[in-house]
Amino acid sequence: MEERDEKLIERLVGRDEELKRFINEHKKLERKLEEFNKRSYLTPEEEIERKRIKKLKLSGRDKIEKILSKYR
C-alpha cells in the first residue's frame, strides 16, 4: 500500500466500520499467508488453501480500494 493510502486508512478506520472490518480481515489473511510461506513444503491441500487465501486477500484489497476511492 502506498504511504498516502496508509495515512488515509489511519484517519478513516475509526469512522468507517466497513473499512475497519476489511482491514482487519486483510491483516488476518496476511498472517495466515505468512505462515504458509515460511514452510519449505506444502501438501496439495495446503497449497489449495494458500491460493484460496491469496484470492480472498486480493478481493478484500479491491474492497478496501473501493472504499478509499470514495474519500480521495
Question: Can you put this structure into words, describing what you see?
Answer:
The chain is mainly alpha-helical and 72 residues long. The chain has one domain. It contains 3 helices and no strands. Helix 2 runs antiparallel to helix 3. The radius of gyration is 14 Å and the shape is elongated. It starts with a helix and ends with a helix.
Index terms:
72 residues; mainly alpha; elongated; single chain; 3 helices
Mean pLDDT: 94
E-strand count: 0
Could you tell me the radius of gyration in angstroms?
A: 14 Å
Strand content: under 5%
Helix content: over 70%
Q: Counting H and I runs of at least 4 residues, what is the number of helices? A: 3
- Give the count of structural domains: 1
Order of helices and strands: HHH
State the distance separating the first and last CA atoms: 15 Å
What ranges have pLDDT less than 50 throughout 5 or more consecutive residues? none
Q: What best-fitting shape do the alpha-carbon axes yield? A: elongated
- Decide which structural class fits the backbone: mainly alpha
Please summarize the sheet with the most strands: none
Layout of strands and helices, then pairs:
Layout: H1 3-12, H2 17-38, H3 44-71
Helix pairs in contact: 2-3
In short:
This protein is mostly helical and about 70 residues long. It contains 3 helices and no strands. Helix 2 runs antiparallel to helix 3 (about 45-70).
